[in-house]
């Protein structure tokens, strides 16, 4: 596929990649603060020590997951190892914040101060709850977006990066085309119900790019983080991705939920030099973690 041949050569990132320990079989979460000062280079290649051990597609396919759609991708090559309704257009809820975060991280300047406007606060139900006039760094907002999935934070970052939310949405759709997400269209930066959609395969492609971004990799692997509010109060944010607390080889990505989308999860894992990205869309809340975990194990271990 054109995606596999082209994508690998044009959009890979330099530098240390998040919480990964390249010399070991598993990722080890790192307590080092998020490196907001990092600016992404314009010329991107894989770091020299990035493991290059493509996944061996298991002979036996996985049990069909109980969800609307799913995809397993080799995170090193972009090859799709398994697809269940992978091209079916669905709402993907907050998993599309991965697109939002990638734009913010690539724009850089994460030490920039962002002054909250009243329009940023209108994004129920999951909100950080800030007020107009409060000031935060772009990097701290990006961290809160990925760890706790605040919808008002997505609005603030979108407006700050593009000047307005509608302009940012256009950036999202341009970014999607650059990532070969041919069956996606976005209407807002936070995934709340709207006339928008993506697919399991397209969200896996997005995850492929996120996997190579050193800033995002250092954020999405965190089990928890803190956020200092304008009044000085420090709150603890537990990552919405519960798989991070189950296994050390789970490396992060993003959760999502609305009534229209059901439970959604883009997850990633690395073991023995192999790396996979798993997308599960439209799942029942009681099954999302087990279904995702089973597909991660299938891709990494063949079982």
Structure description:
The structure is a single chain. The strands form 3 sheets. Strands 2-1-9-8-7 form a 5-stranded antiparallel β-sheet, sandwiched between helices. It has 9 helices and 9 strands. By secondary structure, the protein is of the alpha+beta class. It has helices spanning 2-10, 97-107, 138-148, 151-162, 165-178, 200-210, 214-220, 243-246, 288-301, and strands spanning 67-74, 80-84, 113-115, 135-137, 224-228, 234-238, 250-258, 262-271, 274-283. Mean pLDDT is 85; it is low at 4-18 and 20-47.
Outline type:
globular
Sheet with the most strands, sense and barrel status: 5 strands, antiparallel
Radius of gyration: 18 Å
Instruction: Note the run of SSEs as H and E.
Output: HEEHEEHHHHHEEHEEEH
Number of strands: 9
Query: Helix/strand-derived class?
Result: alpha+beta
**Strand percentage, roughly?**
15-25%
Strand order of the largest sheet: 2-1-9-8-7
Name the helicity range: 25-40%
Mean pLDDT across the residues is 85
User: Low-confidence stretches at least 5 residues in length (pLDDT < 50)?
Assistant: 4-18, 20-47
Tally the helices.
Answer: 9
Could you give a short description of this structure?
By secondary structure, this protein is α+β, with helices and mostly antiparallel strands.
């Amino acid at each position: 596929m054109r995606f596999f041949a082209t994508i690998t050569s044009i959009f890979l990132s330099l530098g240390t990649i998040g919480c990964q320990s390249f010399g070991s079989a598993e990722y080890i979460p790192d307590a080092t603060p998020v490196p907001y000062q990092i600016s992404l280079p314009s010329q991107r290649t894989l770091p020299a020590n990035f493991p290059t051990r493509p996944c061996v597609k298991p002979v036996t396919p996985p049990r069909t997951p109980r969800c609307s759609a799913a995809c397993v991708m080799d995170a090193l090559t972009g090859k799709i190892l398994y697809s269940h309704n992978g091209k079916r257009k669905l709402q993907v809820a907050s998993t599309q914040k991965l697109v939002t975060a990638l734009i913010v991280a690539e724009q850089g300047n994460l030490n920039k101060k962002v002054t909250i406007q009243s329009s940023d606060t209108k994004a129920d139900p999951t909100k950080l709850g800030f007020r107009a006039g409060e000031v935060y760094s772009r990097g701290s907002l990006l961290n809160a977006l990925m760890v706790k999935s605040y919808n008002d934070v997505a609005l603030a970052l979108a407006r700050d990066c593009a000047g307005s939310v509608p302009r940012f949405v256009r950036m999202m759709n341009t970014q999607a085309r650059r990532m070969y997400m041919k069956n996606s269209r976005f209407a807002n930066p936070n995934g709340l119900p709207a006339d928008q959609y993506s697919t399991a395969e397209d969200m896996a492609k997005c995850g492929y790019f996120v996997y190579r971004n050193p800033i995002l990799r250092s954020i999405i692997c965190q089990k928890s983080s803190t956020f200092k509010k304008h009044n000085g109060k420090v709150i603890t944010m537990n990552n919405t991705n519960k798989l991070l607390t189950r296994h050390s080889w789970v490396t992060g990505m993003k959760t999502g939920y609305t009534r229209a989308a059901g439970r959604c999860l883009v997850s990633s894992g690395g073991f023995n030099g192999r790396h996979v990205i798993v997308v599960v869309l439209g799942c029942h809340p009681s099954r999302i973690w087990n279904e995702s975990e089973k597909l991660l194990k299938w891709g990494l271990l063949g079982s």
